[in-house]
Every structure is written in structure tokens, then in C-alpha cells.
What we know:
This protein has 3 helices and 5 strands; from the N terminus they run αβββββαα. The protein has helices at 8-12, 90-108, 119-161; strands at 25-31, 34-48, 57-63, 68-73, 82-87. Strands 1-2-3-4-5 form a 5-stranded antiparallel beta sheet. β2 (34-48) and β3 form a beta hairpin. α2 runs antiparallel to α3 (119-161). The chain is elongated and about 65 Å long.
Amino acid sequence: MHPSVTTAQEALSASGDATPSAAWSLTLLPRSGAPPLRFFGREVFKETTGGLSEPLIVGLWAKRKAGYVLQHSAIEAEPRSHVTVSVDDLSTAMFALEDYCSTLAAGRDAAFEFEGPDLDVALNRSLDAQVRRSRTNAFLTLAGHALAMWDTWLADEADDRN
Length: 162
């Protein structure tokens, strides 16, 4: 999986010249349980998984005036649900994604409990838990790739300042 991104300097610079693939534009991103988020910006990172019935996504958009918008799949919600938040800087986006991943990992590792004598019910619940665990693991891998990339952007930015 290789994300489509601009260079680190283009991704982190709100004043740099936009490349044709990263032009500033009015963007509308879906949010679960809320109207779409509207902003003038450009995509600087987007990675999705393939092979699942519902693709998973982690995306980052730079806002023209300042800040970023983070969007990622909402694993515990209905299919095609997204968490979309506006943040002040890249570090805040990373913290938000890390917090979400911590919550997912804790839920993934929770013990499966079965109550009742019905074997069919037990098998269905076990299969559902396995599918959720598989989606969670796929998302955590995807988020890990995003966080590693963004961490290099922050390191590059720190090097540029020194």
C-alpha cells in the first residue's frame, strides 16, 4: 500500500504552490451523524485498504487558512461511517488517531463471552467477533502506516527549522 501524498514540504506548507494533483478546492467530507464537513483545502494523505467488504480509510487534508482535517473509518459503527474532525496541527491529528487506535485495540482484546446453550448462536457470535477483530487489525495497520508517514513529516519539519 502506497499512499498518494504530496512531498512533506507541500503537505506541511499552507503557502506552497499546489501541484495539479493537490490543488486547493472546496471539499466536503462525510461525517457520521452530522452534516458533511465543508472546507477549502487539499488532500495531503489518503490510504485505503482493499480486499475487505467495506474499504477502510485514513485521510488527511490541509485547510487553506490553517490546520488540517482528519478523516478515518469508524470501525465500531455502521459500514461506510467516518470520523471527520478539524484539528489545529499535524500533532493534534496524530494524537486523535492514536487515541482512536488505543480504544480499538482495547476493544479488540476484550474476551469473548458466550451465554446460553445454543451452539448456532455461539458460532455466529464467534464469527462476528472474528470479523470485527480482523477489520480492527486491518485498520490498526492502516493507521500505523499513516502515523509513521506523518511522524517523518514532523521530523523533516523539525530538521528544516534547525
